[in-house]
Specification:
The protein is an alpha/beta fold. It has six helices and seven strands, in the order ααββαββαβααββ. β4, α4 and β5 form a beta-alpha-beta unit.
Length: 223
């Protein structure tokens, strides 16, 4: 916990200075590119490169996941117009389509997708249960759900600290992000069966070294 705190203290002034200079979409693209270079890119590739067929990426943001799809037909859903515009730029020259919309009301028919991807999104959505229910609606039975999420620490003191600091973090990040969420209960309530959880951390300038998880789940078949 001390290492994470020192990391935050070391990089917060630089990140706050950038925040004053750049619009939110540029700020996010700059900071997430650093995280990608510090190892997040490898996690992204491992998460989605084997997906095939129709894939919906919810909260695709500036398109940071797009380089890692290898054989899928991808639709990105993004509510923020400035992020969606950057996402479309990132998708140029590919078959990826970016649609403005929210994860709580996906503009897709029932059981129309082979997989859904959420990368660093459930921390920011207003209603995790509705988003997970929408994922369960649009993904075919047996289809894949892949997530990268940062989560509240399971360590007692660190977890309590994250909970206490959440209102401050929410105000500062300007992105709707909470630092004290756990996505697993909402996935479970939507009937999405967790297959594997891989824990990791990314140490990059400007983003706290949150506990992160790569999560694989399946939309269960009706019994
Ligand atoms: C931390 S960014 C992650 C962006 C991208 N997925 C990535 O991996 O870099 C969170 C994204 O979730 C989007 N978002 C927020 N609320 C949402 C919602 N209700 N439905 C879908 N996306 C949402 C934000 O606009 C933002 O693009």
């Amino acid at each position: 916990m001390l290492a994470e705190f020192l990391h935050l203290c070391r990089h917060a002034p630089g990140a706050l200075a950038l925040k004053r200079k750049l619009p939110q979409d540029e700020l996010y693209a700059t900071l997430i590119e650093r995280a990608d270079r510090a190892g997040l890119a490898e996690r992204r590739r491992a998460l989605v490169s084997d997906l095939r067929g129709k894939v919906v990426e919810i909260g695709c943001g500036t398109g940071a996941m797009f380089p890692y799809y290898e054989g899928a037909e991808v639709i990105g859903i993004e509510p923020d117009p400035a992020f969606a515009a950057k996402g479309r730029e990132a998708a140029r020259g590919t078959s990826i389509e970016v649609i403005e919309g929210s994860g709580e009301a996906l503009p897709l028919p029932d059981a129309s997708m082979d997989a859904a991807v959420l990368a660093l999104v459930l921390c920011s959505v207003p209603d995790e249960d509705r988003v997970c229910a929408e994922v369960a609606r649009v993904v075919k039975p047996g289809g894949q759900i892949r997530l990268i999420e940062h989560v509240r620490s399971e360590r007692r003191v660190a977890g309590a600290l994250m909970k206490a600091l959440d209102p401050l973090w929410f105000r500062i990040n300007g992105q709707g992000c909470h630092l004290d969420r756990d996505p697993l209960p909402a996935l479970d309530r939507a009937g999405l069966r967790i297959e594997s959880i891989d824990a990791f951390q990314i140490w990059s300038a400007g983003i706290p070294a949150f506990p992160m998880r790569s999560i694989r789940a399946i939309r269960a078949r009706a019994s």
